[in-house]
Every structure is written in structure tokens, then in C-alpha cells.
Amino acid sequence: MPVAMETYEDEHRIFLQGLMCKGVLNSKEVNALHEKALAVCKIDIPEKKVDRQKLLVKNIQTINDQLHPVGLIVRKGVDEDTGESCFMLVNTEPRMVGASRELGASVQSQWSAQELEYLRLLATDILQSDKKTITGREALHLTDKVGQNGGKKLSMEEAEGTINRLISARWIKSIEDNREIALDVRFLGEMEGWMVEVVGGVAKCQSCRKVVVRGEYCGCEEGMAWHKYCLDKQAKMGVTTKCKKCGDIIHGPEGGSKRAAEEERGEPSKGARRGSAEEEEEDDQPSQNGRARKRSGMEETTPKGRRGRNRRKSGDESE
């Protein structure tokens, strides 16, 4: 049987067509598509996983060599919430229209000018928010800003349809039980240049060096950020993640960096110091609390379990 060649052959065309049809594929889907393309072209599929991955990388590079002149590339992205690797066909042409912040319709022909303007409004509000998300209601209210420069307006019904299509194409995602909207892997993988122009910079994860929007940030310096899944991965391996600038330990959503740094140095955190002070106050006040209850006419109540047992005991004695 023939082996995969470095020249652009049918197995590359089949793989690219499959990727174009779906838009975004996760690792499992990409591997399945690659093996199917090899099987159709009667090319041996390596038995070892590492060899299959090497062949996949090699074939994607061959495809990208062909796509480069037309401003396209097969790029790997990562889902910010799950850490899942995804592959997508993205356009490398500039997204800005002149000096404005509009998204260029010429490089995204599947979307109308109104839909691209709406996507720009959604993304801008998301990136400029504290949580890097907006609510569904806030998203729909942005329709009032579409077409303010003389373009066609976007109705609420059209906006809902556009949001659903953007979610299906993985430009945006619905999170928090569908209450919030955030940027998805397609937008993060394709719009990095545009994000730099809009918000003045994009943070790169200090662990994997990929774009991070909704991650864990260290306040010592702008742009010092980590993906939450990268922190989780490091923690599971028993590795402590520290900020390279200030030395604070960086934890996931359940831990604060400065608190962890203090604890590692043997210093009690603010919460621990406050808790110890409260315990000392409680130890000094039991008699005062008892006198206060007597003055107010309050009586100490017996817990329900004990009260029930006392009643049964009294009944037994009466018998």
C-alpha cells in the first residue's frame, strides 16, 4: 500500500473538505476524520498512537502550505472551560475595516454585514466586562446599536437567530445554565488580532501560551493570566503554579493567590487570623452570653434529638 506523501494529495483534500463542512472539530473527531481520509485513499494507518499523531501533524502542515497563499490555515485552539483541543479552518486576513473596529465582511462571507456588526458588539461588550461574559438580555439589547451608521437594522427575532447560529459555529457559547454568553474557541482562535485592536492587548496563559480571556489573573502585572484548566492540570500533577513576577501561588477559582502564598511561607492568611481572633472572643464570652440570655428572658432550648429522648424516657418511667 502507498504511504502518505508530502505533496498535496487526495487524503489532504478529503481531510480539508471534512473540516470545512463542520467548521470546528475536537481531537476525537479530527483523528476519526484523518483515519477515514487515509482509509479511503488506501494508506496504511499507523498502529501506534504517537505515530498517528505525527502523521496527522505532518499532513496538516502540508495542507497549510497549500492554504497559506489564499490566507487560510488549519489552526489548533483550546476550549477555555474544558481544556479540550479543537481544530478549525480560520482566515488569516486582517479583520479591521480601515482604521475602524468593524469586522471585515469580505473575509467572512457566510455572515451578513448586520450579523458581523452584531458579533462585534457582542464581543466588545464581553471583552470589556469584568466577568468577560454578558447576559442574554444584554445581548439582545445590543440590537439597538446595529445600523446606527446608516446600515440595516437587526430585529430581536433576527438577533436571536444570529446568536443561535454563532453558538452552533462556536464563535460564542452559552454558559451558567444558558444565563451568560461568552466567547468560544472559534472566536479566540481566529480573532486574536482584532481583540488586540479593541482592548489593547490579549493575555497569554503563562502555562500553555495560548490566548486566555476567562481565566485566573494575577494583579501584579497586566496580562499575567492562566487558564483554569491549566491550573487544574498542574494541581493534579502535584505542581505548584507561581506567578513569575511576584511569586504568589496561583490557584483556581476556589483559592486566592496571595492567601496561598502567605500559607506557604508559614504565615497565617487574613481569614485564618480573623478566625482565630473570633474563636478567642467566643472563648472569653460564654458567661457573658449566658447572663445576656437570662436578662432578656430567653431560656436555652434542648436540641430536638435530646428533647425527644427525654420525652421517651419520661414515658418509660411513668409506665
Could you explain the architecture of this structure?
This protein is mainly alpha-helical and 319 residues long. Helices cover 48% and strands 11% of the residues. It has a 3-stranded antiparallel β-sheet. Strand 5 and strand 6 form a beta hairpin. Helix 1 packs antiparallel against helix 2. The radius of gyration is 29 Å and the shape is globular. The C terminus is likely disordered.
Which terms would index this structure?
319 residues, mainly alpha, three-stranded antiparallel beta sheet, 13 helices, 9 strands, 48% helix, globular, disordered C terminus
Give a short synopsis of this structure:
Helix content is 48%, strand content 11%. With 319 residues, the protein is mainly α.
**Count of distinct strands:** 9
For the residues shown, what is the average pLDDT? 78
Spatial shape: globular
Give unreliable regions as ranges: 97-101, 255-282, 284-319
Q: Could you give a short account of the major beta sheet?
A: 3 strands, antiparallel
**Helix amount:** 40-55%
Content of β-strand: 5-15%
> Compute the gyration radius: what is it?
29 Å
Classify the secondary structure makeup into a structural class. mainly alpha
Distance between the termini: 95 Å
**Count of DSSP-assigned helices:** 13
For the largest beta sheet, what order do the strands appear in spatially?
1-3-2
Q: List SSEs in N-to-C order.
A: HEHHEEHEHHEEHHEEEHHHHH
